[in-house]
């Protein structure tokens, strides 16, 4: 009965989406677009009915690419970055005993939510270590998974550069909920606890108009900053554009050379006033990224999340997108993973993976659908791509149909810019020849479990109990180190999901 209801809902949603696409001509924003294309993308994402609405929440459409023949398409180029909003959002739905909307499930964000264990040595004169591994696919035992891990160095907080942070906080009436402004206040207070006298904090609020609450305050003045945060009250309509312009002005006025200069937008995403100017807003944010100012977006709450806008703004503001639903997730995003979320070590990071047609018959990428770029963009330094922070793990998975297991099946090329540079650098690694193994690393096994989890959430009507059991088995057998308990909590989530499928 559950499947019939979900199928009916899916058909209704697809019908609505099809009508919306015909009416609005909406497009999915991709990395590497021109400013004109960027403007068009956000106008579409912001227009009424541009994407389907689920419980008042809106998400960008995800179009899966399917299999590619290596002989016809021997390479693929991606923009690399670490966002994790999709995992926390999916977790929230499952804990509410509901399946998340299928277009809210970005499988790469599910996988990249977790840390991986194997210690890797950085490549010479590069911020990255690149590791590859091959093993049996959890989707098809006759195929293999190519596991690609791009890792940056972990750096202690005291060794990180100083921060110039502008908290751009939505205090509109829609934020008046226990899981919005109060949780936001707790989250930012945790972040303030990590700051010191070398850091600067400004606070801008927006609700009908933008107000400057603090400007360039010494990070060691924690009581003053926290009092300002906890004095905030929700009320009024939303005018996101004015607030963002003010926030960028403060970020520019307090700019720290060689530091981390960043606007952190915290909102439920309900841009319900001034939305007609969102195309201008997107161009504005795209221009600011060239001046060394980054934008991170943190979503809060339920019921009116504009995930489509928040994802798009973070993508074009050289930042990342996280979702916070609890004090625990606040600690993960703003304390435990402060470096990876707020301190950039590489700009415009692109991965180009070349497959050998004599070794690989076909391949398909797991996730990253909205981050695929044209292959000619890989060497074009004018094309924007993702940013990667301190201590980040970026995992990319491909499912391969191997022809010759004696040959090296693929090569990984990474292009990146040092922060502030305009010329990219190249790093290349050949994958080892495939050898059947009864035991892959814990990293490989756990990532395979989460990839299967993503597949189940994206196609729940095709999911089986055997798939759930397989995901649970892979996770249990490959937990590895789990100091913060995130992997064990994922196991609990799988058990809850098994009741819904």
Ranges with pLDDT <50 over ≥5 residues? 1-53
**Anisotropy-based shape:** globular
Overall average pLDDT: 85
Tally of separate helices:
14
CATH fold topology of the largest domain: Immunoglobulin-like
- Overall structural class, as computed from helix and strand content, comes to alpha+beta
Strand content: 15-25%
Helical residues, percent: 25-40%
CATH architecture assignment name of the largest domain: Sandwich
Set out the fold topology:
Blueprint: H1 2-24, H2 35-46, E1 53-54, E2 57-58, E3 68-69, E4 75-79, H3 85-95, H4 107-111, E5 128-136, E6 144-152, E7 163-170, H5 181-192, E8 200-206, E9 210-218, H6 222-230, H7 240-253, E10 260-267, H8 278-288, E11 294-300, H9 307-316, E12 321-324, H10 327-336, H11 338-342, E13 344-355, E14 360-366, E15 372-373, E16 386-389, E17 393-402, E18 410-417, E19 425-430, H12 442-458, H13 465-477, H14 486-500
Parallel strand pairs: 7-8, 7-10, 10-11, 11-12
Antiparallel strand pairs: 1-2, 3-14, 4-13, 4-15, 5-6, 6-17, 8-9, 13-16, 13-18, 14-17, 18-19
Helix pairs in contact: 2-8, 2-9, 5-6, 5-10, 7-8, 12-13, 13-14
Can you describe this structure?
The protein has 501 residues and is α+β, with helices and mostly antiparallel strands. The chain has helices at 2-24, 35-46, 85-95, 107-111, 181-192, 222-230, 240-253, 278-288, 307-316, 327-336, 338-342, 442-458, 465-477, 486-500; strands at 53-54, 57-58, 68-69, 75-79, 128-136, 144-152, 163-170, 200-206, 210-218, 260-267, 294-300, 321-324, 344-355, 360-366, 372-373, 386-389, 393-402, 410-417, 425-430. It folds into two domains: 67-155 and 345-444, Gamma-adaptin ear (GAE) domain (Immunoglobulin-like); 158-342, von Willebrand factor, type A domain (Rossmann fold, 3-Layer(aba) Sandwich). It contains 14 helices and 19 strands. α2 runs antiparallel to α9. It is globular, with a radius of gyration of 22 Å. Mean pLDDT is 85; it is low at 1-53.
């Amino acid at each position: 009965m559950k499947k019939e209801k979900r199928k009916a809902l899916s058909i209704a949603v697809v019908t609505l989406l099809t009508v919306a696409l015909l009416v609005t001509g909406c497009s999915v924003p991709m990395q590497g677009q021109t400013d004109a294309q960027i403007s068009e993308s956000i106008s579409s994402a912001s227009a009424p009915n541009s994407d389907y609405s689920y419980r008042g929440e809106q998400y960008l459409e995800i179009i899966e690419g399917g299999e590619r023949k290596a002989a016809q398409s021997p390479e693929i180029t991606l923009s690399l970055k670490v966002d994790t909003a999709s995992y926390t959002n999916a977790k929230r739905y499952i804990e509410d005993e509901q399946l998340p909307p299928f277009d809210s499930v970005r499988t790469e964000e599910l996988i990249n939510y977790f840390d991986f264990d194997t210690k890797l040595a950085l490549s010479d004169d590069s911020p990255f270590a690149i590791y590859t591994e091959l093993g049996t696919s959890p989707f098809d035992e006759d195929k293999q998974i190519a596991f690609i891990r791009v890792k940056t160095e972990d750096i202690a907080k005291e060794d990180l550069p100083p921060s110039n942070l502008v908290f751009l906080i939505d205090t509109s009436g829609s934020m008046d909920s226990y899981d919005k402004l109060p949780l936001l206040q707790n989250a930012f207070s945790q972040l303030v606890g990590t700051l010191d006298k070398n850091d600067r904090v400004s606070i801008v609020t927006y609700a009908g108009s933008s107000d400057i609450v603090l400007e360039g305050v010494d990070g060691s003045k924690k009581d003053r900053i926290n009092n300002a945060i906890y004095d905030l009250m929700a009320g009024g309509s939303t005018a996101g554009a004015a607030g963002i312009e003010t926030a960028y002005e403060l970020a520019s006025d307090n700019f720290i050379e060689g530091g981390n200069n960043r606007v952190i937008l915290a909102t439920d995403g309900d841009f319900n006033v001034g939305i007609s100017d969102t195309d201008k807003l997107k161009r504005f944010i795209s221009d600011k990224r060239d001046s060394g100012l980054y934008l991170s977006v943190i979503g809060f709450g339920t019921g009116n999340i504009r995930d489509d806008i928040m994802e798009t703004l973070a993508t074009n503001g050289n930042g990342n997108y996280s979702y916070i639903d609890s004090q625990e997730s606040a600690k993960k995003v703003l304390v435990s993973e402060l470096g990876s979320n707020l301190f950039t070590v590489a700009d415009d990071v692109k991965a180009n993976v070349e497959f050998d047609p004599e070794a690989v018959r076909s391949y398909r990428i797991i996730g990253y659908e909205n981050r695929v770029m044209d292959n000619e963009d890989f060497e074009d330094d004018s094309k924007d791509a993702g940013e990667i922070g301190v201590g980040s793990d970026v995992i990319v998975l491909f499912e391969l149909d191997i022809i010759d297991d004696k040959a090296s099946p693929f090569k990984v090329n990474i292009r990146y810019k040092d922060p502030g540079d305009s010329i990219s650098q190249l790093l290349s690694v050949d994958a080892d020849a495939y050898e059947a193994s009864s035991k892959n690393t814990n990293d490989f096994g756990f990532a395979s479990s989460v990839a299967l989890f993503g597949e189940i959430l994206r196609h729940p009507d095709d999911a089986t109990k055997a798939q759930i059991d397989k995901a649970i088995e892979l996770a249990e057998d490959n937990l590895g180190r789990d100091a913060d308990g995130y992997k064990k909590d994922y196991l609990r989530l799988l058990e809850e999901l098994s009741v819904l499928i």
